[in-house]
Amino acid sequence: xxxxxxxxxxxxxLCACAAQPALPARPVTAKPQIAVHASHVPLAPENAGQxxxxxxxxxxxxxxxxLQLTSPDSPRLHGLSxxxxxxxxxxxxxxxxxxxxxxxxxxxxxxxxxxxxxxRLWPLPGPNGQPLAALGKRESDAxxxxxxxxxxxxxxxxxxDRILLYPAANTRRGGPPHRAPSPDVSFPDxxxxxxxxxxxxxxxxAYLVGGEAxxxxxxxxxxxxxxxxxxxxxPEEFGLTALAPLPGGGRVYLLRxxxxxxxxxxxxxxxxxxxxxxxxxxxxxxxxxxxxxxxxALPRPDGSLRLYLISDDNFSRLQRTLLLAFDWQxxxxxxx
Length: 336
Hints:
Elements (H helix, E strand, L loop, with lengths): L1 H18 L17 E4 L16 E2 L2 E10 L9 E6 L4 E6 L3 E9 L5 E11 L13 H4 L1 E6 L5 E5 L4 E5 L1 H4 L6 E3 L14 E4 L7 E5 L5 E6 L3 E7 L7 E7 L5 E9 L3 E9 L5 E8 L7 E8 L5 E7 L10 E7 L8
Antiparallel strand pairs: 1-3, 2-3, 3-22, 4-5, 5-6, 6-7, 8-9, 9-10, 10-11, 12-13, 13-14, 14-15, 16-17, 17-18, 18-19, 20-21, 21-22
């Protein structure tokens, strides 16, 4: 019986070994640093081969380059749902499965988007210090990220609607967060606080929050909570997926819609301090478009804006992680 039991155990061990997945063809990094491949994408794929006919602008918006981002080192460079970019090229994003993505933008001599360098990807920790992703999708669906002047980071999450604050001292060490004030409303499931951005002109602890379904925005402060502000006018089928503040009180809003008949549609709206619409960029097929959920706006010395958009590919082979750049020059006398 002992020999039979030993033979059975050996057989089970062999079966277990045979059931193990194959090893990857190349080493997978265990560190936050990852390689990112950036493939250039045209604004109008149908005209990409026509030297004179290639489209390089939409109205006053000049296309400043676009990239499709992939990584051979990590299966988690997907689902990017917000975007922050600083004048020195630093990029910050957050994903649907509770990861943080940091990198630097590389520009060519003409200032056009050329690539991504110094990329890092790591999991957001939860209040218990363990990765949020370990708690499941409902707890780790990060949609917005903001960085205050002191380096503290805010992350908005939907499904379990809340905003977490990561102290600056913990962002590199992976320390736990604590809750920050959020709007005292009940959001529809999976249609919560998609939009989040710092609001430096309102104070060092101020930030903006936007609800996807309603288009309602709030101005929040760590010390005093949230107050409703503007409600973004939009067609019912569009959701507010991101916003960015502009010097002087203006804002940039990113709106997104999808239907089987019309596909993916994106509207980028620039609004002045008085609430008036200054301009809109509309993307739909056959132009390059995807599920854009993040926007960053960088004022430039000549009075123009550099606008960056990033798309959430939903971990789907039918979608892409796109990073697009546009330059916009306001009409004379009309500042955002």
